[in-house]
Amino acid sequence: MSLPESTTVLIVGAGPSGIVTALSLIHHGCRDFVIVDTVLQGQNTSRALVIQSATLEALDTIGCAETMVESGWKSNGLSFRNRSSNSDLFYADFTSLSKYTPYPHVLIISQTTTERVLEEKLESFGVSVIRPYKVIGMQRNKQENDVTDVSFEDGRVIKARYVIGADGARSAVRTISGIGFADPNELDRDLSSTNMLSQMVIADIYLTDTSLVPDNHTVSVMSLDTFFMISPIPREIDEVKGMLYRISCGVPLEMGTPPHAPPKEYLQNILDKFGPKPLKAASSFEISEVLWSTRFRTHSAIADTFFKRLGSDTDMDAKGGGGILLVGDAAHIHSPAGGQGMNLGLRDAVAMGEAMSAHIEASQTSPPTDDHILRDLADSRHATALEVIAMTKNILGFYGLPRNPTWNKFMWWCPLSLGSIRDYTLWMAGRFRFVRESAAWQMSGLGRR
């Protein structure tokens, strides 16, 4: 498919957030858009794995939830387990949300599957992603003040009244338009200067022993100063390789920097050191194959604004210029704690399509409408992103406690570590149903629709 000379809306990036933005536009009656991506096809990795209740509700409003649910695996909850005693401390029960949502569960579905399902849905409307096109420049059109000329690496240019950056954490749209991107709390200390979790590994692995995790929920194994999370990934069991699992683990600083793509041997060591303990003392869980693995540093950042007009570099609110909007990782990133990242982006995208369609329709009136529709959306989603970032930081801090807290030198007589106090507090809180339901509510996103 060739690139047209002009369009009303240009969506840059065809990950889940970009495709859902396109689907939301279609649902709300806007078909004059183009969606492009830098790669020839989606990445063959799982990456994001969780879709929460609130996200499924949002997807349902544009007719996308049913197929997603059919393609995934329903997890009833998340259990927190003490590795030393190998006993459960707390269970966040998502089935308790049945009185609030038609989706009282966590949907486990690989991002590869998510992208395939969404792109097939988009193609059913006769729309295809145009690949590969890499944005390298944007400037005001000389004839039309509210139009942006977007330049691509191959020299082509497209005119667009609105440009939606759904092109990830290293967003070209955000960078070129001069929107800042930083941690929302400048007073936060660098995680590496504390004993909190500043580095993690994530991998999809095959294990021959399929009894590692119950088939109806995810398990988080808690050690003194880190955690190990494991969840089955929906796929037929391979008779030789075993069952496919997603594992994620915070790597303590004393273990050094993890390899770029952690190999089987490294991941086996992580599993043995921090993963669930086998029921038999002499046995162990063995990784038969690594499908995909990566490392990353846990950090958060949010764009200064999710909407601006392409004005001067020094005037973010300059009048005139094409509309620039951000969605998904281009707008905000944070640690994967709590499984919120892609969910926030997908809810951004659903809301974006509705607001964008309303703004386009209102702009047909005379005189043209102002930008309050898009600014209100941007402000609302920005506030929600800040709340989610704060929550993920709190979760990460809960997992990665200091091994030798400052107060410990004054309480040398106390036999309990912070990890022990944390685990006991978690066990006590888990005795109360409303606490378990509250934990599920917070992670589900239902309070931040």
Broad shape = elongated
CATH superfamily of the largest domain: FAD/NAD(P)-binding domain
Number of helices: 10
User: What is the radius of gyration?
Assistant: 23 Å
| CATH topology type of the largest domain | FAD/NAD(P)-binding domain
User: Strand count, sense and closure of the main sheet?
Assistant: 7 strands, mixed
Low-confidence stretches: 187-195, 312-318
**How far is it from the N-terminal to the C-terminal residue, by CA?**
36 Å
Q: Helices and strands, in N-to-C order?
A: EHEEHHEEEEHEEEHEEEEEHEEEEEHHHH
Mean pLDDT: 86
Strand segment count = 20
Query: What number of domains?
Result: 2
So, CATH architecture of the largest domain?
3-Layer(bba) Sandwich
Percent of sequence in beta strands: 15-25%
Keywords: FAD, Flavoprotein, Oxidoreductase
Organism: Serpula lacrymans var. lacrymans (strain S7.3) (Dry rot fungus)
InterPro entries: FAD-bd, FAD/NAD-bd_sf, RIFMO-like
GO molecular function, one term: oxidoreductase activity, acting on paired donors, with incorporation or reduction of molecular oxygen, NAD(P)H as one donor, and incorporation of one atom of oxygen
